[in-house]
């Protein structure tokens, strides 16, 4: 509307009309037709072309340039993956590159043969792949050099002892939603990445529930308002998408409609933090904890692994009012069990005991209400995937420096366990907060609890570990964890320095 109102005839939009999106055919996800008429209704000059025909592309751009007093939209009809037989018109090849190894090379060769461009000679392709391999080795070395070194290698599953399973955190959300779906009041709403965030588990094995699932498409604000209406009528709606979208694009709706009215909407803040890796900065939610925490009536949980995600999802479902479960995409260490005590609103206290064959067996976990001080040297306070890194840091601190660490797993950020935080501050006098988020999003919440409530009978040393005032970038999640200084090795290094200051 704005473009046509101001007669922006130097503006041209191109719509890639391939009839697909991640959740399936566009006409099934959210029909767009009559697309041409809709653009015309907003005052645009419209053109339709074959998006694979270069002469049509060029002539349409020429016509757009000559059009006066109107912006132009070019509806380019295309076929996703055109020319590559195994990928053509296939949703599953969204964001997928050929895999490493022989099979990956074969699929790449097959694709290049299908495309048939004479530019892609075998010599050129081999040179490019060799160059890419060399570049990757350089990056790998740079990443490894950024990691603090110790007498031993403590990295995940690098030795016969302290072995850990890796399972995507999102799986726990899906398992919980599948079970919760037995309740007829539960409604699920998708935003075009239903399977990716495991929202599809709600109905995948229960087709009769499909009438309680609504695909809204890439329209987070609309999805939030629909959920609000359902909640007003007594339903318990779950909405979800990438964390950066489901807490950012719709923040006004979360604030003014959901939280202001205290509606019972549950939000899956999925693929949060740097766990989306290769998707890069635009898709990495590193500000969402701050965006959500200060909304009145909001409940916020950031579970540490798949098992705790399942528990957290179930816990917030029947708490009155809006609630968010923030979880990751990639496989992360399983550091709790089904028997690990869990209570919404209460932190878990974790203590490293002794090196064992399995990582989880090396630790003891209690509810904060059941814990008595053991005279630890320092406290690591973490949430989400950083709990596992804090646990590994406690292991390194003990083995390398004989330092004892108290770990607080703050899976519930709101309401936060103030008593556990204050107790740790008073009893250890050293606090290091750990977050996979812009530094201070979680750390400042903890610091605020201490500053507003602690009686300063003894000095307190506090440090915060997180992403240092920058956007994310593309890379493997574990690469980014190292580059951003979020590993146990970095936590150990910072904790040791803080402890030396205390002495």
TrEMBL record:
Gene3D superfamilies: 3.40.50.920, 3.40.50.970. Coiled coil: none annotated. Its cofactor is Mn(2+); thiamine diphosphate; Mg(2+). GO terms for cellular component: cytoplasm. The keyword Cell cycle does not apply. Residues 167-334 form the Transketolase-like pyrimidine-binding domain. Keywords: Thiamine pyrophosphate. CDD domains: TPP_PYR_DXS_TK_like. Belongs to the transketolase family. This is Transketolase-like pyrimidine-binding domain-containing protein.
């Amino acid at each position: 509307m704005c473009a046509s109102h101001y007669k922006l005839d130097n503006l041209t939009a191109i719509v890639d009309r391939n009839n697909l999106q991640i959740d399936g055919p566009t006409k099934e996800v959210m029909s767009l037709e009559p697309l041409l008429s809709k653009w015309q209704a907003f005052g645009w000059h419209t053109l339709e072309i074959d998006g694979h025909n270069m002469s049509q592309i060029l002539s349409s751009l020429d016509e757009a340039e000559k059009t006066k007093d109107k912006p132009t939209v070019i509806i380019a009809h295309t076929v996703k993956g055109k020319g590559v037989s195994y990928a053509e018109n296939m949703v599953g090849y969204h964001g997928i590159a050929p895999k490493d190894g022989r099979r990956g090379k074969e699929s790449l060769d097959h694709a290049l043969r299908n495309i048939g461009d004479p530019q892609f000679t075998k010599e050129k392709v081999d040179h490019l792949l060799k160059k890419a391999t060399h570049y990757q080795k350089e990056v790998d070395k740079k990443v490894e050099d950024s990691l603090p070194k110790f007498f031993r290698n403590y990295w995940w599953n690098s030795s016969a002892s302290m072995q850990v399973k890796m399972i995507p955190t999102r799986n726990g959300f899906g398992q919980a939603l599948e079970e919760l779906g037995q309740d007829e009041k539960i409604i699920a709403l998708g935003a075009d990445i239903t399977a990716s965030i495991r929202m599809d588990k709600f109905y995948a094995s229960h087709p009769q529930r499909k009438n309680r699932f609504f695909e809204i498409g890439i329209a987070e604000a609309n999805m939030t308002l629909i959920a609000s209406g359902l909640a007003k009528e007594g339903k318990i709606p779950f909405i979800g998408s990438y964390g950066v979208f489901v807490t950012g694009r719709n923040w006004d709706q979360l604030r003014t409609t959901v939280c202001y009215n205290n509606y019972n909407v549950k939000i899956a803040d999925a693929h949060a933090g740097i766990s989306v890796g290769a998707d890069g900065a635009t898709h990495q939610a590193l500000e969402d904890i701050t965006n959500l925490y200060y909304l009145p009536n909001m409940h916020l949980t950031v579970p540490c692994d798949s098992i705790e995600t399942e528990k957290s999802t179930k816990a917030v479902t029947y708490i009155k009012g809006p609630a968010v479960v923030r979880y990751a995409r990639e496989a992360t260490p399983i550091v709790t069990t089904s028997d690990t005590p869990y209570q919404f609103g209460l932190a878990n206290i974790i203590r490293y005991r002794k090196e064992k064959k399995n990582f989880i067996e090396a630790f003891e976990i209690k509810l904060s209400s059941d814990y008595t001080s053991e005279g630890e040297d320092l406290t690591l306070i973490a949430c989400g995937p950083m709990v596992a890194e804090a646990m590994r840091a406690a292991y390194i601190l003990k083995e390398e420096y004989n330092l004892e660490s108290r770990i607080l797993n703050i899976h519930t950020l709101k309401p936060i366990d103030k008593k556990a935080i204050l107790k740790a501050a008073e009893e250890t006098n050293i606090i290091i907060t750990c977050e996979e988020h812009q530094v201070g999003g979680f750390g400042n919440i903890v610091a605020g609890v201490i500053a507003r409530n602690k009686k300063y009978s003894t000095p307190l040393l506090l440090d915060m570990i997180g992403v240092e005032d920058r956007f994310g970038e593309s890379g493997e999640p574990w690469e980014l964890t190292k580059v951003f200084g979020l590993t146990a090795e970095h936590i150990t290094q910072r904790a040791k320095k803080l402890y030396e200051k205390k002495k």
